[in-house]
Design a protein that fits this description.
heterodimer, A: 324 residues, mainly alpha, 74% helix, globular, B: 233 residues, alpha/beta, six-stranded mixed sheet, 9 helices, 37% helix
């Protein structure tokens, strides 16, 4: 069948794996060899990358700006932490529980979220985030309040790999989970649903005029993003064996937004790249001069937004396009 | 903008022109029919079904499509992606997130065929925002056609298009299926009298007159308030 061959291959080409992508994932193994004493940091980066990836589905694809995405991260973290403290410390079960808890919270809140746009949406997501953070603070019997959740004990991964002091297991675990979630996200954005999300981002007014139930789409992607954020939170709880109130903080919501915008939203890899840059830079800068850390981040953010409006990855893509 | 005391029946296959001075409520009427505005009173029936309480997207699913006077497109989607999106929505595939787009060959072929029928084939792989204005106007219609409408409402399809191109655009519109009911808003009377089989005249939110082009052209009331004297008489 000749007809339609080029059109189909156009979509196929868009979903094809590029050599640079494979190189990126191969490079994620480097810390095991090159910086074996930084594997705990590498694990935190992978977790932050997953968190940023989940926000990218909202912001980069569906066009939902959120300043309260930490709510789902934190909810997943506390759910997984409390499970291992009181019932069982098997990590994969904890991951599922964190994902499910955050997903349910995401689904419930999505019914309100999708009714609003622009400034109201930002305020609303922020409000939800603050509500949850304050609730966790008040319920200190359950969460440990400002002292953090103590007594989280995680069983060895697959009953074989102990979570060691150097973070070998932690990084391997976080990396595999990140890759799995990335593959799911990649599948989503190249599906009809992913196309519909981009349609909503590009023109929310036109969508109903082509028969699209935009709100149903938005509820769905919001729930999916909440699940991924919950998985990231659960990973953090398990690999650090503690949960602090910071997981729900406004700062975490703002940081992940900054990370995604620095890296470049709407490209899947933007959040990953942003997380690497942000976390490594914070580690380096705060080692020298902790109080000036946000000065440099501020400067970087201003520079990127002014000169690379599509983030570092957007600038890079443009540069590569021009030179090939 | 208001519209009141509107009593309108659109039989299948008829090409209606909706005319009237600016502010007469023409776009408001389209917004009411498509559900983008809610009427305070009255109802809208499509075929046998009362659709007054349905959301806009549900009305589209039942065969009621529209285009916009000001381009309302997807700037950073290609033309092919935009039309494929509309086809996939119609087929109820847009909920699917586990299957990649290339698996939907039928929908992609159909999107291509629609672009081809409107002479937009060359624009397929270009981002909408990079298309020429006239092509964007055609893409407006392509998106509406992808929903396979029974009734198509065109809000000034040739708005902003040079006169010679607008004839081309209306030729494409009149080439659409005979079964399709079309209502278009248009200010150019040459175009209206050439392509419409019936004309509705709106003034100040009310329907002043409706009839065949001959009847409207001869209606003294219409000529007085709208057409000006001596034209098309």
């Amino acid at each position: 069948m000749e007809k339609g061959r080029t059109e189909v291959s156009y979509f196929r080409a868009q979903a094809r794996w590029r050599p640079l992508e494979l190189a990126f994932w191969a490079a994620t193994l480097l810390p095991f060899v090159v910086t074996p004493s930084y594997l705990s940091l590498a694990s935190q980066i992978a977790i932050t990358a997953l968190f940023a990836l989940s926000l990218d589905l909202l912001l980069g694809y569906a066009g939902i700006v959120s300043l309260g995405h930490a709510a789902y991260f934190g909810f997943g973290a506390y759910s997984a932490g409390l499970l291992s403290k009181h019932y069982l410390g098997e990590p994969l079960t904890g991951l599922m529980v964190g994902a499910a808890a955050a997903g349910i919270l995401g689904y419930v809140t999505s019914h309100v979220i999708v009714r609003f746009r622009h400034l109201a949406l930002i305020m609303l997501t922020m409000g939800f985030g603050l509500l949850l953070a304050e609730a966790a603070n008040s319920a200190s019997d359950l969460t440990g309040g400002a002292d953090g959740l103590q007594g989280v004990r995680i069983r060895p991964l697959l009953e074989m790999f102990r979570f060691d002091l150097y973070g070998r297991t932690a990084y391997a675990y976080s990396l595999v989970v990140l890759l799995a979630c990335f593959l799911i996200s990649r599948r989503i954005i190249h599906s009809p649903f992913g196309l519909a999300l981009r349609g909503i981002r590009e023109n929310a007014l036109r969508m109903p005029a082509i028969g699209a139930p935009s709100r149903a789409h938005l509820r769905k992607v919001y729930s999916i993003a909440a699940i991924l954020a919950g998985v990231a939170g659960a990973l953090l709880a398990q690999t650090t064996e503690t949960v602090s109130l910071e997981v729900l903080s406004f700062g975490r919501s703002a940081d992940v937004l900054v990370i995604l915008i620095l890296g470049g939203a709407g490209r899947l890899y933007g959040g990953l790249l942003g997380a690497i840059l942000y976390m490594v830079a914070r580690d380096q800068f705060s080692g020298m001069n902790p109080q000036y850390w946000y000065f440099w981040i501020g400067l970087l953010l201003v520079a990127v937004v002014m000169f690379l409006p599509n983030g570092i990855l957007g600038g890079l893509a443009k540069f590569l396009q021009r030179n090939t | 903008m208001v519209a009141q005391d509107i009593d309108l029946v659109l039989p299948q296959g008829v090409r209606y022109a909706l005319i009237g001075p600016n502010g007469a409520g023409k776009t408001t009427l389209i917004n009411l029919i498509t559900g983008m505005l809610r009427p305070d009173a009255g109802g809208i029936v499509l075929g046998e079904e009362d659709i007054t309480s349905l959301r806009p997207d549900a009305r589209v699913k039942r065969g009621l499509a529209r285009t916009f006077q000001i381009n309302t497109l997807f700037p950073r989607l290609t033309a092919l992606e935009s039309v494929a999106l509309a086809v996939l929505e119609r087929e109820g595939r847009s909920e699917t997130w586990w299957k990649p787009l290339p698996a939907y060959r039928g929908a992609i072929d159909e999107a291509h065929a629609i672009l081809h029928s409107l002479n937009l084939e060359k624009a397929s792989y270009r981002l909408t925002r990079e298309l020429a204005y006239g092509q964007q106007r055609l893409l407006e219609i392509a998106l509406a056609l992808a929903t396979r409408p029974r009734v198509l409402l065109l809000d000034e399809p040739a708005a902003g298009v040079p006169k010679d191109e607008s004839a081309e655009l209306f030729a494409a519109i009149s080439g659409l299926s005979e079964d399709l009911t079309i209502l278009f808003i248009e200010h150019d009377m040459d175009v209206v009298f050439r392509f419409a089989s019936r004309i509705i005249v709106m003034v100040s939110g009310r329907i002043l007159a409706q009839g065949t082009p001959q009847e409207i052209g001869a209606d003294p009331q219409v000529r007085e308030v709208y057409l000006g004297k001596g034209r098309h008489g």
